Amino acid sequence: MDDNNCGCWAVLKRGVCKPSAASRDSANTIPRTSLVYDTATETRYLNASNRELCPPNEAHLSSENPDPPTSDDKSPCQLLQFTFQELKSATGNFRPDSILGEGGFGYVFKGWIVENGTAPAKPGSGVTVAVKSLKPDGLQGHREWVAEVDFLGQLHHPNLVKLIGYCIEDDQRLLVYEFMTRGSLENHLFRRTIPLPWSNRIKIALGAAKGLAFLHGGPEPVIYRDFKTSNILLDSEYNAKLSDFGLAKAGPQGDKTHVSTRVVGTYGYAAPEYVMTGHLTSKSDVYSFGVVLLEVLTGRRSMDKKRPSGEQNLVTWARPYLADRRKLYQLVDPRLELNYSLKGVQKVSQLAHNCLHRDSKSRPTMDEVVKVLTPLQDLNDLAILTYHARLSQHGRRKKKPEGSQQLSNAHSKSIRDSPLNTGKQRCR
């Protein structure tokens, strides 16, 4: 990764919660060797419904230790410790109209605090923050709250959401993050009527890739384990930052090839070999990145039961197109019309194909992914320009009829339906 985008690792002073030594995963939890799965096995996995990979009560009542990374740097992390009353006031008594979102963990509220302090501020003043509150009966419990504090308390990078502080008071568990103005990538891809421009999609994919590359390349690697569009947050300039580290896991060390752990995550994103063996590696995150890259390219969800049979799982539907360069453009989000880079689509499609390789060892590293995506920001070979150029050349070969008019509506439609955008109707 380039030096300008490197992050830093710091050690958080413990004392929030220390799981017992007996709670650590056994290396022999799932004594199966890793495998390269065949098409039939993959299809059975991919046709599963879009739900959490293991029952919530099992996932969150398990004794799994977040195993946060450590470092030789002994400088304490500067997390702020809030009182419950301070956060209650900062969010306007957790009023409903300040809710930014909801997940298994609980609600996320918008709030305001004074700069460089924990005191609440008037709405619109001070620093805007996002306050995540653990539900008392939440399915994602205290252990994941601890994982969030441990990991984000130590890891600092431009493409990771910043954890400002926390509150632990009686049975209250809250986390305070920097406020991300544009919300999640999921909202922009699937819930907005105006399509996300191609240039922004590339910028977001690159930023998210840099975040994962930082996690994998640190002094003690971290596997994110829950990479998906809803966990990629965007600031006002569409810079991507990874959020929600409740399922993050310390990666294998030394001569270990994987970490054996309980299978958790979301169907449609988790790598099949991890689901089938419980063996977790950094290449599990790479597979998840490949799925998100497909979502960015196609504008389709990883799992969508509203689509026809055969198109409900994005990876299953897209594989034949990824393997055939002549069909690549049928993958492109039809809402973009011809406003995308021809070379960019080729490179992104090939990269997604490599990230989704059935053999995890054949997938690229996230550093390699960053290298592929970086030059795609500067491409200006828009399909619409190429089409107009071809149209112009064709027109010069023919004598224009007297009194010809400017491009008509019918002509405009021919641009949208050109061979460059073949399969547009099918993609709807």
Automatic annotation (TrEMBL):
EC assignment: 2.7.11.1
Annotated Protein kinase domain residues: 94-391
SUPFAM superfamilies: Protein kinase-like (PK-like)
Principal location class: membrane
Gene Ontology molecular function terms on file: ATP binding; protein serine/threonine kinase activity
Keywords from the UniProt entry: ATP-binding, Cell membrane, Hypersensitive response elicitation, Kinase, Membrane, Nucleotide-binding, Phosphoprotein, Plant defense, Serine/threonine-protein kinase, Transferase
InterPro entries: Kinase-like_dom_sf, Plant_Ser_Thr_Prot_Kinase, Prot_kinase_dom, Protein_kinase_ATP_BS, Ser-Thr/Tyr_kinase_cat_dom, Ser/Thr_kinase_AS
Record: residues binding ATP: 132
Subcellular location per the Swiss-Prot or TrEMBL entry: Cell membrane
UniProt entry tagged with the keyword Disulfide bond: no
GO CC term, one of those recorded: plasma membrane
Xref: CDD domains: STKc_IRAK
GO biological process terms, semicolon-separated: defense response
Function summary: Required for pathogen-associated molecular pattern (PAMP, e.g. chitin and flg22)-triggered immunity (PTI) involving reactive oxygen species (ROS) accumulation and triggering plant defense, including defense-related gene expression (e.g. PR1 and LOX). Ensures specific recognition of the EPD1 effector of Verticillium dahliae, resulting in a hypersensitive response known as effector-triggered immunity (ETI), characterized by the activation of programmed cell death to limit infection by the pathogen.
Family per record: Belongs to the protein kinase superfamily.
Protein name (database record): non-specific serine/threonine protein kinase
Organism whose genome encodes this protein: Hibiscus trionum
